[in-house]
Every structure is written in C-alpha cells, then in structure tokens.
Amino acid sequence: MAVDPLIELRDVNKYYGELHVLQDIDLTVGKGEVVVVIGPSGSGKSTLCRTINRLETIQSGLIRLDGQPLPEEGKELARLRSEVGMVFQSFNLFAHKTVLQNVSMGQVKVRGRKKDEADQRSRELLERVGLASQADKYPAQLSGGQQQRVAIARALAMDPKVMLFDEPTSALDPEMINEVLEVMQQLARDGMTMVVVTHEMGFARSAANRVVFMADGRVVEDRAPEDFFTHPESERAKDFLSKILKH
Amino acid sequence: MDVLTDNFSTFGDGFLGTVELTVYASLLALALGFVMASFRVAPVGSFRVFGAVWVAVLRNTPLTLLFFAVLLGLPRFGLVLPFEVFAVLALGCYTSAFICEALRSGINTVPTGQGEAARSLGMTFSQTLSGVVLPQAFRSVISPVGSTLIALAKNSAIAGAFSVTELLGTYKTLGELGYSIIWTFVWIALGYLIITLAISAVFNILEKRWGVAR
Ligand SMILES: Nc1ncnc2c1ncn2[C@@H]1O[C@H](COP(=O)(O)OP(=O)(O)OP(=O)(O)O)[C@@H](O)[C@H]1O
Ligand SMILES: [Mg+2]
C-alpha cells in the first residue's frame, strides 16, 4: 500500500537513562492502513505508541504526522494531539465524570463545540459502540469491556486522523475481549488509520494490513499478517510465535 | 465574669481583628497555594523549581521570624503598608506553602493515566489540571486544607505582638485594667474556639458534599 503517509518515523531513538528502548526506528503508516505491533514484553511497543503523540519525547530522529513534524510542548502540540486518538490498556476514563461527560469533554474544551452539539455527537458515538443506555453512569459502574468502549468513543469524538491502541484488551476478562475487538474491527472496515499494539492474532489476521514485530527496541519484521504468521523470517519472531501460538 | 460584659467592645474588636486576619490570610494562602501547586506539577522546569523553593523556604521558616522579616524588611525596600496588611502577607505566604503541599498530595492521588488521556485528547496543561486533575484532587484535600486553615487562625495570634488588633492581644489591655487574667484567657480561648469550630463546620459540609470518592 504505497499511499499517502500519515505517520512517519525516521531514525527514531529513545533512551530511558542508559536503556536504549527505541533503536533507529523507521516506520511509515499510510492513510487508512491498520498496523498491528507485536513483540515480547519490554520490547518498546508502548513506548513507540506513546512517542507518536509525544506523550514520550525522543532523543533523536524525526516523527511526522500528516507531513508535519511534531511540535514542542505547547498549544500547537495540543492541537496535533487532538488529531491522534489514543486508547490505553487501563482505559483511563475520567472517574469524576459520567460516560456522556467523558465523551463530550474534549469536544467542548478542545474543539470548542457547544455542549448540546457535543452531547448529541457523544450519544451517536455511544450508540455506535453499543453503550447508549449507559450514558449517565460513572465509569466505576461499568465493566472493563464497557469502559474500554467508552474510551474508544471518547477518542473518536475528536474526529482523529489516526487511532493508537496500546494493548486495549489486555486488562479485560476473556468474555469481554470480543466486544472491544468488534468495535475495532468495525473501525478498521470504516477506513480508520490504526496502530494497534496487541497479541490478539485473530484481530491481526482479519483486520491488519501489516504486522510490525518488535524485539529489544528494534523493528525486526514488517510484513503482511499472513506472511508473518506462517513464514516468520527472524529467529526472534519464530521463537516468539511458537510461545504465543501454543495456547 | 464581668470581664466579658464590661469589655465587650474590646473583646469584640479583638475578635473581629482575628476574623479579618484569618479570612484575608486564608484567601491569600489558598490562591497562592493553588498557584504554587500548579507550578510544582508544571511541564516547565523553571516553574517546578520556583514552586519547590517557595515551599522549602516558607515551610521551614518560623512564623515569628517571617513576621519580623516582612514587618522590618519590606519597609527598608520602601514598601510601607499598614501592619494589618503586612500581617496578612506574612500569614498568607507562610500558610500557602502548607496548602500547596496538601494540594500536591491530592494531585498525586489522581491516576497519571487520566492526565495522559486528557493530554492525548488535545487538552492543554491548564485544561487538564482544571478539568480532570484538580476536581478529583480536591476531594481528598478538603480535610487537610481545613486543618491548615485552623492552624492559620491560631497562628494569627502572633500578629498581636506586632501591634495588630486581634483577639489574643486584648489580654494586655484587660490585664492593665486589673481584670482576672484567668477569666480573660478563658474568654479569649472561647473566641478562638468559635472561629476554629466555624472553619471545621464549613469543611465538614464541604467534605459531606464533595469529599466522597465515587
Ligand atoms: N518511564 C519509564 N522509565 C524507565 N524505563 C521505562 C519506562 N517506561 C518503560 N521503560 C522500560 O522501557 C522498556 C520498553 O518498555 P515498553 O513499555 O515500551 O515495552 P512494551 O513492549 O510495551 O512491553 P509490554 O508488553 O510489557 O507492555 C522496558 O524495558 C521498560 O522497563
Ligand atoms: Mg506495553
């Protein structure tokens, strides 16, 4: 898919003190592409995700979003972040706000929408993730799967150009994983550009255009899902797949 | 017993003086404490340093010393204000350091992930702080802030030593008039009790209304 690049990382390096967590990362994500990132624990997948909206700063290299280099901390960065939706492993809903308020808050504060307008849009999105009836509850009153779907709606409310998912189903009980994956599948079908850190192979096979395999802070493989799962090239990937595909 | 009825206006003036000092200094302390707490969690390093130095200096200086510094020091730089204003400045700045630390510990009870989620939506630092972090932090700081303001009310007694009219200072006037020192002090203590109980009551109401975490 040699389409317009939406996210570009060039020679990105990131250290935590001595630890070299991202090593010469080169990665391009095109408009409408779904890229799944997998790899062993500690390989830098979350860090990679978080550098894309500059929740983590990098020491060298270049990150461009829709052609624009990421700005320094400030108004300009905030504006750019609003175009990048992010969904976290631990949901991170605002505990003091209702479901509806969670989804509306960014629209009002960042996009400057009127409250009524924002609430209407929020209800549409909640409908889409199957939670219209939960609008007036607080996050603590919802199951994990429901909370994660609210978090997805909250991110979508900003009309982002791209969505980042960092292990969105890892904190969920098995019976709730599918309800979240279904919402993500639908998003992928609707043409959303997505970067998804996940170990859900079913999702990778059915929704991803590419699988990026990371180990020790490097991108080791970057291929079509079927190729990767059936014919991994590197020893690291073979080893990793044999471990996770056993069960 | 006569000491109260005979000198009601002296007590009254002292009582009002203490109330005024407490109210103004509290407002200053809350405002400054709020600003300093924001500085201490700001993304800009120099703000964090300023906040940390503010707290370190004011929290570790004896209040009496601070009164001397303000009342004797500021006029040397040409800043001459009524003693009452100096007293409010000294009390307010001193207490702001404690308010700042109470707020900061409240901020630390809010999971960092919520702040990250807010920032990833494109909210600025101040929007994140005011819309997500502080409303939740407030719930856990109501009671410590109440205690800090009660301490402020009692600390205001030091101002009496610097010729500000306040409650404790009335004992000198009444002592000179030959009234029983014991009864004078009993009434003074009662005056402070009224003020501190009033503060407690306000904060109990706040705690009932806002304090419960959902
Ligand atoms: N804030 C931090 N400070 C110091 N080291 C960190 C920090 N965050 C992550 N690390 C380290 O950086 C490395 C990469 O972490 P990262 O969270 O990106 O890995 P990951 O691939 O997402 O792993 P997992 O599958 O466990 O989520 C790890 O060794 C981790 O211990
Ligand atoms: Mg991770």
Automatic annotation (TrEMBL), chain A:
InterPro entries on file: AAA+_ATPase, ABC_ATPase_HisP-typ, ABC_transporter-like_ATP-bd, ABC_transporter-like_CS, MetN_ABC_transporter-like, P-loop_NTPase
Transmembrane is among the record's keywords: no
UniProt keywords, alphabetically: Amino-acid transport, ATP-binding, Cell membrane, Membrane, Nucleotide-binding, Transport
Mode of membrane association: Peripheral membrane protein
Gene Ontology molecular-function annotations: ATP binding
PANTHER family: AMINO ACID IMPORT ATP-BINDING PROTEIN (PTHR43166), GLUTAMATE_ASPARTATE IMPORT ATP-BINDING PROTEIN GLTL (PTHR43166:SF9)
Protein name: Arginine ABC transporter ATP-binding protein
Taxon lineage: Bacteria, Bacillati, Actinomycetota, Actinomycetes, Kitasatosporales
From TrEMBL, chain B:
Keywords: Amino-acid transport, Cell membrane, Membrane, Transmembrane, Transmembrane helix, Transport
Chain ranges passing through the membrane: 21-42, 49-74, 80-100, 149-169, 181-206
PROSITE patterns: ABC_TM1
InterPro entries, A to Z: AA_ABC_transptr_permease_3TM (IPR010065), ArtM/GltK/GlnP/TcyL/YhdX-like (IPR043429), MetI-like (IPR000515), MetI-like_sf (IPR035906)
Subcellular location: Cell membrane
Membrane topology qualifier: Multi-pass membrane protein
Primary localization class, coarse: membrane
Pfam (any one): BPD_transp_1
Domain ABC transmembrane type-1: 15-207
Family: Belongs to the binding-protein-dependent transport system permease family. HisMQ subfamily.
Name of the protein described by the UniProt record: Amino acid ABC transporter permease
